[in-house]
Amino acid sequence: MSTYRRLNKTLLWVLVIAFSILIAGGLLIFKNEAPRPTKIVSQNGTTLVTKQQLISGQAVYEKYGLTDYGSYLGNGTYFGPDYTAQALHVYIQGMYQYYGNKQYGKSFKALTAEQQAGIKGKVKEEIRQNRYDAKTDQLTLTTAQTAGLNHLTSYYRHQLRNNPRQAGMPENMIRNNTDDFMQRGDKIDQLTFFFFWGAWLSSTNRPGQTYSYTNNWPYDLEAGNVMTSDAMVWTALSVALLVAGVGVVIYFYKRYHFDMEYTLDYDKIGAIKTDEPITPSQRKAAKYFLIVMGMFFIQVLLGELLAHYYVENGFFGIPLQNIWPFNLAKTWHLQLVIFWVATAWLATGIYITPRVLGREPKRQGFLVDTLFYALLIVVAGSMLGEWGSTLGIINSKWWLFGHYGWEYAEMGKFWQILFILGMVLWVIILCRGFLPAIKIKKNLDRSRLLQLLLSGSIAIPAFYLASLFILPNSHVTFADYWRWWIVHLWVEGIFESFAVILIGYLLVDMKLTTIKSTIRALYFQLILLLGTGVVGMGHHYFWEGDHSIWLALGSCFSALEVIPLCLLVWEAYTHYKVYRDSQLDFPYKGTFMFLVSTGLWNALGAGALGFLINAPAINFFEHGTQWTSAHAHASMAGVYGFFSIAIMLFAMRHLTKPEFWTAKVEKWVKWACWLFNIGLAGMVFITLMPMGFLQLKDALDFGYWHARQMSFYKEPIIQGLTIARSVPDIIFTAGVVIIGIIFLRAMFHLKPASKKINPVDYDIQ
């Protein structure tokens, strides 16, 4: 137990240090964020844009879910343009045209190469100069910059009004309603002002610096946006730190024996039983899994619809974009994966609670039913709200009940609060079983394992509270700082930690590992995961107007994130070896297949592909391309998706009668696992990685704005790769259908409920 105390103290210190760095870096972000001037004025003092119009344009961007169509400062979806890069390019073209007419009386294209070079140099120098006056809180534009803004306004009026050529988008989607957080006036013009502000802050030098507020992102030679020396230096140092970190981690791993020890004395264990009785609340948890598979299936179909939009504006000639535009389908696609993964984990926690206590807490079933119907309301209500907001049906209070406008945080604020309350209710359900079980002093190792699992459970709703700090009028840098607490820290950090703890608990529950070695291994893995992952989320802060310190912190710590993820592959292999060498009638073969798959995709999708795109020297050119999409799919589906299926199979194995799990059913589970892996591998490596490579090459050759234009996806080779994706998509979908049918049939073979069960016996460990 003294070893546990040392490990516990180490983990706490790691958390204190990591979060201190994260919060200190956040304070620097807020102190150094790009100004949102009270007014943007011309040289003669005429007001061009007000701060209220900037905020109104941001609200338009949020209300219509444009973050799930294109992106802003590189954050969002990869189908539409990056509006920052596109606006910067068009704004510069407008300045070229102004100087061509002023100096030569000709259009810029009609000038000689020498004349064009002179104008380009003049414009580059002009836009780099920062003319923001902090005393008056005003930004002054030169006459040429004003012409560039006017040119940009005309461009977006043409692009977004009376133009049905936006693939997957309804014509005239943006309306002139003056809704919450909006000002009177033309909404497309106000949206343009918001885009222009992003172009300005990304191409204007910070006061006293030779790089822009975004560390010169996006890459655009005409704007003078080239990679800074810091980005290259810290990329090199991060690789060196990774090599050194591997050596240090391996030393501690072997020196202190942090691997799990496997229980091989099968005679002492006896046969692994799955025929024990279940309680009413455990039986009620089964219906959660059926809803999970329904959401999973819909999410996959939406993903296939999104892929179809890459090929044509519609669905086999049907104007489906008028009902489900691309941005709405993408919103649901992202939100459903969070919903079904979270629901799978909630249901597994509900199943485990009486199992650790050995009895049913009073009125536990009522709370389980209440949570179930509350989740249904949140899922259905938030999705309908997003649909209404995107199509202009919900206008007033859109930010409460409609689309909130930030990727992975699309739910309106009302639904976010209900979702948090639902997770709090889940923690209460767990505490009613875990706390009495922890107080039992019969086995202190057992209490420590339950403490870790309960702590990981409490962290899930606790860290989602970051979503409450974002408001529709928040500065984009402020909003994205907290948004990444949800996307990276909540999804990739807390979910990852909870998954590691739950895997350890399941291995002990399945009587495969000794409890003491499992707890030590969990501490070691958590120290590595959270020690690197908390600060490692800073690789998302390189280019969005944050302090340049994140080039150092984000690159180094995100490189170290690869180490614990790759160590999990070794754990996955040893799990497989125990399963393979076991002479027992092992009832968890399906669970183990998906757990092994989780470990492999953790190293490949989250580790290798994450490392590929996170280094600043690569990310500067790659940010927001299909390589990012490849990393996201391999991580979300391969890690959280496969792990969710594994734990659901474990729970359903106990909730159903043993005779249901025939050799035929086990064979279909095996086939489904192979279909999942083959389909995901094809999706990532046949389509997304080659597309990302070509897109990165396009960005290097022509500038980032060019690689994000719709014309890129109309290239014959890109169209071919997109069409080829239909094959792995169908294979993956077949796996979903098979698992869904298995869970549906299992619902007709549930065990009857009993009020008392035997707690899991840990003494043999």
Account of the 3D structure:
With 765 residues, the chain is an all-alpha fold. Helix content is 68%, strand content 2%. It is built from 26 helices and 6 strands. It has helices spanning 2-31, 51-63, 83-104, 113-128, 143-160, 187-203, 229-255, 266-269, 280-309, 326-357, 364-390, 398-401, 413-439, 444-464, 476-509, 515-536, 549-560, 562-581, 589-614, 616-622, 626-655, 663-702, 704-707, 710-713, 716-724, 726-746, and strands at residues 39-41, 47-50, 71-72, 75-76, 132-133, 138-140. Strands 2-1-6-5 form a 4-stranded mixed sheet. The chain has a two-stranded antiparallel sheet with strand order 3-4. α13 packs antiparallel against α14 and α15 packs antiparallel against α16. The longest helix is centred in the C-terminal third of the chain and has 40 residues, at 663-702. The mean pLDDT is 90. The chain crosses the membrane at residues 12-30, 231-253, 288-311, 331-352, 372-394, 414-437, 449-470, 482-508, 520-543, 549-570, 591-613, 633-651, 671-694, 730-748. InterPro entries: Cyt_c_oxase-like_su1_dom, Cyt_c_oxase-like_su1_sf, Cyt_C_Oxase_1, NorB_cytochrome_c-like. Residues 326-765 form the Cytochrome oxidase subunit I profile domain. Keywords: Electron transport, Membrane, Respiratory chain, Transmembrane, Transmembrane helix, Transport. This is Nitric-oxide reductase large subunit.
Summarize, please.
The chain crosses the membrane at residues 12-30, 231-253, 288-311, 331-352, 372-394, 414-437, 449-470, 482-508, 520-543, 549-570, 591-613, 633-651, 671-694, 730-748. It is built from 26 helices and 6 strands.
